[in-house]
Amino acid sequence: MRVGVFTPLLSQVSLPQVLKKLAALRINTVELGTGNYPGDAHCKLAMLENSTALAEFQRVLADHGANISALSCHGNPLHPDQARAAHDREISRKTILLAEKLKIPVVIDFSGCPGDSPHATAPNWVTCPWPPDYLKVLDWQWNEVVAPHWIEHAKFASDHGVKIAIEMHPGFVVYSPETMLKLRSITGPTVGCNFDPSHLFWQSIDPIVAVRLLKEAIFHVHAKDTQIYPSNLPLTGVLDTKPYTDERARSWIFRTCGYGHGAEWWSEFISTLRMFGYDSVLSIEHEDSLLSPEEGLTKAAHFLNSLVIREQPAAAWWV
Considering the domain boundaries, does residue 116 fall inside one? Predict the structure, then answer.
């Protein structure tokens, strides 16, 4: 297991500066955005058509002893606005091609969310089964939009030797272990998950139990925490639509690792990941509105570095 960083939190800094800063924190693994929601500050898809730029990019990584855990292009490939959907799908396809060139095994994306019909203009995230209109919408979304796209896109990724890690995120059709496994049953083993415990905490899903449910479907892990505020929860419930910056009134907010749950919880989470076969990166993602990116990154790096076993343990004396 090793600690990495999802670099959009340092988007105002050049890639060499990012790698130098992270090395000082004992981190040499990065997850890079290529467009859509994460942006492309440190990894341009134009390198696909520019061998000189690609070679320079690889040289910068090598000079700093850095490696890439995944390329991320979180978007909404199922958006009812066809132009938006086409844009996000093209970014995802090009990201897969770049991952193939760079020999990076995983691309991270969102599942997306369609509208409620072919005539919709905005996504429609269904969260309840009644009135029955909602189940009709859900059936239409999965059968007519989700399955056709993801079957085709999974085959494209497989043909290029790349796996797709879907981040389970409310607001999209895949937001829970159940919906993740549903998509995987449709697409096959090329599609798995980018496991971010912060999105499960506030849904009252125990992330450690979720690791046991998802098992080999976990392709990549984000390190991000959530803090629940019991004094606000009875008023809003977990489906709280107030801005993330309205911390005093929200029922929950995203936190830096260790600020929502302590070392005991994170140690058990890391141990359970290893127990079920995941021994790769914990990629720090900063979305803590109470801490600056610099402060959040530094605290998360020190916290996780104190918990992670960097090397396999030596052979036992009785072996």
Answer: yes
238 located within any domain? yes
Residue 282 backbone dihedrals phi, psi, to 5 degrees: -105, 100
- Is the bond preceding residue 105 a cis peptide, omega within 30 degrees? no
Interval 152-156 mean pLDDT: 98
The model's pLDDT over 47-105, given as tens digits with 9 standing for 90+, comes to 999 999 999 999 999 999 999 999 999 999 999 999 999 999 999 999 999 999 999 99
User: How far is it, in rounded angstroms, from Cα 25 to Cα 286?
Assistant: 15
pLDDT for 307 equals: 96
Residue 148, in any domain of the structure: yes
Whether residue 319 lies inside any domain: the answer is no
Residue 310: pLDDT band (50, 70, 90) is: low
